[in-house]
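To whoever is covering the structure queue this week,

Two jobs came back overnight. Logging them here so there's a record in the thread.

Job A:
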Amino acid sequence: MPASNLQQVWPEMNPEDMSPEQMALAALRHEIDLVDDEILALFQRRLAIAAKVGQAKDAPHGPHTKLRPDREQTVLSRVMAKADPENAVAVEGLWREIVGWGLARQGQLQVQVWAPVDPTRAFDGARHRFGTAAAIRMVRDPQAALAFAAEGKGVAVLAVNTEDPWWVGLRRDWSSLSVFDGFGAAGGQPTSLAVGKIDPAALPKGRRVVVSAGGDAGDGGGARRWGLNTHHGWTLALTDADLTPGDAEGCVGAIG
């Protein structure tokens, strides 16, 4: 390894005074520096492309947020399929940050979180999903958060493990909004839902979210339902039925 490279990674040492162990460590550090340079160049290139993508996006059915959950799902699934299993958690976290910063080049995402029960879990779920590039803040009024999302200013993350049935309004009052993600305990049912003015064609592939009258036992056609909450005869549930948002069966979105 050239002496100049040794001094770059270990400037306080004289190469002639280095032990074999220090020489080996310096070589590894130099290798990391080279990889960091490659990562930086590629990341900045990706950000530049993401900015162009933002300019090219065109929602076909009126104004929607620039979020494309289906595209994010595809990108993450492709990357995770290539990742070594022992690196899966690290890769997912890194890629969500990369996607979040790319989205920020199209305009910083504003996220309002309402969760009177276990607010830390809801906030952490939002931070993990949207990354540190997003502006996330806690709010006290779920209806105000829904209005914020309906205006296209950003998205709302709202708890469903509460006595406030804000989700009934997704059928009655907030038809322009769609559920596009859910957060909760690992491997469990979601305790909060992400809601936004999402192009229905851009919803992720996964379980549908339904708000309907009656219970959560399913429709008798073989499609299971998992109840999340109930209120005065209304039920919020997940289903594996392939439903279209806004249809008569009460589909209000999807969770990937």
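Job B:
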Amino acid sequence: MSKVRIDIVSDVVCPWCIIGYKRLEKALFELKAEQIEAEIHWHPFELNPAMKAEGQNLREHVNEKYGSSEQASRSARETLTELGQQVGFDFQFNDEMRIYNTRKAHQLLMWAQQENRQFQLEMALFKAYFSDNKDVSDEAILLEIAQSVGIDSDTAKRVLEDESWAETVASTEQQWLEAGINAVPALIFNKKHLVSGAQQTHHLVQALREVAALEEE
């Protein structure tokens, strides 16, 4: 059995991050017969760390940040929706959708890792934002999501209010920036091999085979 550590640097409001993960999931399923398994760790990356509390209309945000026209933005959303369907994820984009700050979501995610609830919480946050159009910066909604994956709401509330967790998120993000990660998703295999972006499943299969072979040498 070959075990590959995979560190995933991502944000829960990044559509390519969930597409990239779902493609990775398919790649790992294909490799089961070859006895290649993964130990996955998620790490924070805020796409919009300075985003105001009320968020911003997603179309306006994309236009301001990337200069995309309304037609280009609509086309991109249609493409993402189709890609989501291909990997079994439901994107529900609409004209009123907003982009939010994700610092508090990442506080919960970092804490949840030590409780073995990180994966469930990560998936629930992607679904809450992209499928259910929920405000993932809202503390009440975050507590709801935490409860849905078996996290005690009082404990989650303490994590959300604990400034030391906010500082931990910020310092971790800074470490990734200093390591050269400035876009997500970013996958690091065995702490040495970087795969950037939402790569196609067959590329991930090949990369995982190569990494597993290197570890056996």
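Note for Job B: DSSP finds nine helices and six strands in the chain.

Please reply-all if you pick these up so we don't duplicate work.
Q.
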